């Protein structure tokens, strides 16, 4: 009898856990599948099961929800598109309707609402622009206005917030830089001021926080480091201390990563811990190269011929031109 009760309680726990995370299902799949891909293990997941689930999450309006029968949102639409790119299976969804859904989310000032309920946030600008770029349909929205809105969110410290006048935050900075990287407008960024602000996020533990006076968190290992990589200033932080902090957050038994040492692990922090290690060139783990703009394996970007801007590449090119005596027209 005790065994039966124990099994029942465990099954009920699993059911509760599944229900409580349903609003994150598509994003959770992206976190898990990306982590598996950069560790050379994507083949361990049933591809057809993944594709079938995503297909069921698309609505008649074209947007994709977090789970079956959940409202569509740009966040989950991007996650679904990223997953489909891994499997070269964009034809799983109705691409024309997805494009129309994203177009309808852009407002007159260039910003994007996340869904039909109207919340405006620079996260959604990135989701819209990244989704369209992955679909090779970036020309479907007003890029000039989209960039203008991002620029209006720039603060005195070089950072960006969720909307004009909002506090600078590392996660939102990543989204704004990602949008500018994809659209080819990184030149509007105050690179040194922003690089300094981002480098200041490193704490004595080696970890990074998202804004001043906050605790370190492994997820900011990605938001901050990817931003610094895009800016060409990744060397502005202490790499060894950063790597050690991330490794301290790995659970020896499960292999997953948590936000801070000793906390519960989850797919979200596992992906961003591994992605940060890839960015840092950590050689003791066989990790695929990650693209700092899309947080997708670089080989996918190469296959799709996507080349988002990065200041380190621009500055390197300018340096080589100067060294070779080449002048701009």
Automatic annotation (TrEMBL):
Protein name: Geranylgeranyl transferase type-2 subunit beta
SUPFAM superfamilies documented for this protein: Terpenoid cyclases/Protein prenyltransferases
Any one of the GO BP annotations: protein localization to membrane
Residue stretches making up the Prenyltransferase alpha-alpha toroid domain: 14-296
Cofactor entry: Zn(2+)
Enzyme class, broadest EC rank: transferase
Reaction(s) this enzyme catalyzes, per UniProt: geranylgeranyl diphosphate + L-cysteinyl-[protein] = S-geranylgeranyl-L-cysteinyl-[protein] + diphosphate
Organism: Trichogramma brassicae
Record's GO cellular component terms: Rab-protein geranylgeranyltransferase complex
Primary role: Catalyzes the transfer of a geranylgeranyl moiety from geranylgeranyl diphosphate to both cysteines of proteins with the C-terminal sequence -XXCC, -XCXC and -CCXX.
Family: Belongs to the protein prenyltransferase subunit beta family.
PANTHER family: GERANYLGERANYL TRANSFERASE TYPE BETA SUBUNIT, GERANYLGERANYL TRANSFERASE TYPE-2 SUBUNIT BETA
Keywords: Metal-binding, Prenyltransferase, Repeat, Transferase, Zinc
Gene Ontology terms, MF aspect: metal ion binding; Rab geranylgeranyltransferase activity
Cofactor: how and how many bound: Binds 1 zinc ion per subunit.
One Pfam family in the UniProt entry: Prenyltrans
Oligomeric form and interacting partners: Heterodimer of an alpha and a beta subunit.
Keyword set includes Nucleus: no
EC annotation from Swiss-Prot or TrEMBL: 2.5.1.60
InterPro entries (UniProt xref): PGGT1B-like, Prenyltrans, Ptb1, Terpenoid_cyclase/PrenylTrfase
